[in-house]
Amino acid sequence: MRKMEIRKLKKKLLKEEQRHRRRKSKAYRLLRRAIPALLILLLAGGAWELYRREGRDLKYYARAEEQQLAGRYQEAARLYKKLQRRHPASPKADEALYRLGQIRQLQFKSYPEAILAYLSLEKDYPHSPLAGEALRQVADLYKNQLLDYPRAIVIYQKLLDRGTTEADAVQYQIADCYFRLNNFEQARIEFENLLKNYPETSLGAEVSYRLAVNLALQGEGKKAIELFTQVEERWPESPYAVEARFGRAGVLEDRDDLGGALRLLEGLRGSYPNGEILKQRISQVKTRIKKKTQGL
Q: Which top-level group of life is the source organism from (predicted)?
């Protein structure tokens, strides 16, 4: 047992001696000096390749941008699409997709293709500063161009969930979509939530007016009158104050308070933006009053 331990110790000492000699050798010293230089060369080579790729991508993007500014939209769209497909990791890839979507939307009026570009941007580059704007474009296209309100609601809600600096405006669009679908109950809920969640919103007068209209359509005339009056008193300089008075007259007319409706309508002469419509409503109410008087 003692002899085995001595042999192991000898082997260990021999290995240490060999390692020590290698460290003293010229080749070893040269190798140690060369390693940092080799690392620097490798890093420099990688940096150069990255620089070369970024330069190439910037040239591609610049060519596409030049074609777009010159009004050659087909060629610009082709180059933007090519840049993103061939170099998806390029720092300009997300911008290329956004520009592609803009050209398809504004110049080609190809809304489904524009939506495809915007959704690709949001999916492939979710952390891009353009991702939220791309979603907003998709929602607006579904709502205003394709009149696909259910899909618009889904995208607007997704935009709210991911976070946006215009949350009140997005909430308004959701409410408006439900209103256009004649889902007045859900529209009312969305308008009420907007006022509750964003009490300082700049849309306060418009939202309150729309909510009053919604209440009137649901047959809640008393609540509608209260809200129309609130719009007039709280935002007297807003154009919705005039519309609220006109709306209040309509509710009074529906409730058969023709005298009250006529007084409100007469008071709008000279201030209501659509004078012809006002004239017709006044005539209509006067006719109803005359018939009612004659029937007594």
A: Bacteria
